[in-house]
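Please, structure for the following, as tokens.
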Amino acid sequence: MKYFLLLFLFSVSSQAQVFVGYSYAPRLEDSTSGQETKFEARNLFYTGYSKDDWRVQLQYSTESEGTVNGSSSIDTKSYEIIGWGKYLLPLNAAYDIKYYVGGGLGLTWDKVDTTLGAQKIKDTSDREIVLGVIFEGLKFVLPQLSVGSDLKVIYSQYYSKRPTFELGLNIAYYF
């Protein structure tokens, strides 16, 4: 608890800010074979810290998919955690929009529940490393509230072996 209090006091005294946010992020991903492109909408939740020209952010997302065929079903839930580091670009932009560029490193994994009649099987995939780059634009509509969008290119060796593209629409609250 005292660490959170120190972080809060430090952020107030040095013009740094702690923030939490939500992003709706449609993702476009090719299959491993490259024969199929999959579109999925993800809900991302994040928290972070902003000071001077730097931002660090921890992002968490899940996505569920399921199929049923008679007495058989397959339910898949994907998880992803990525830490992002972003730097403010020195651009004089119109409408006071701030532009950031950065990179990220994280983990992803899947949980699969399969039902074949009366037999149920649960499986969890290995954790896989995720790499990403991000370009983000933010506009403060109030001193403690920002809206923005970002474009991410995410790569995981085992997902599709091809880059995944994600466009996020964000809202964040600053303490």
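DSSP finds one helix and nine strands in the chain. The longest helix spans residues 2-13.
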